[in-house]
Amino acid sequence: MIDLIDLYYNIKNYSEEDIAMIKKAYALANHLHDGQFRQSGEPYIVHPLNVAYILSTLKADADTICAGLLHDTLEDTSISKGEIEKEFNSTVANLVDGVTKISGMNFQSKKEQNMANTRKIITSIESDVRIIIIKLADRLHNMRTLEFKKKEKQIENALETMEIFVPLAYFIGAYEIKSELEDLSLFYLKNDEYQKIAEIRHKQEVGCNYLLEEMLNKIHNLLTQNGIPNEIKTKIKNIYGIYKRLAQGNKLSEMHDLLSLKIMVDSIPNCYLTLGLVHENYYPLNDKFKDYICNPKSNLYRSLHTTVFGPENRLVQTRIRTFKMEYIASYGLTADWDFNSDKAREKMQKYLKNKCQFYRTLTEIDKMFSDNDSFVNQVKLELFGDKIYVHTSTGEMIELPKGSTPIDFAYQINSKIGRQMEKVFVNDEEVPFDYVLKDGDRVRIVTKNNDSISDVMIDGAHTTHAKRKILESIKN
Ligand code: MN
Question: Which among 3, 42, 76, 451 is annotated as catalytic?
Answer without folding.
Answer: 76
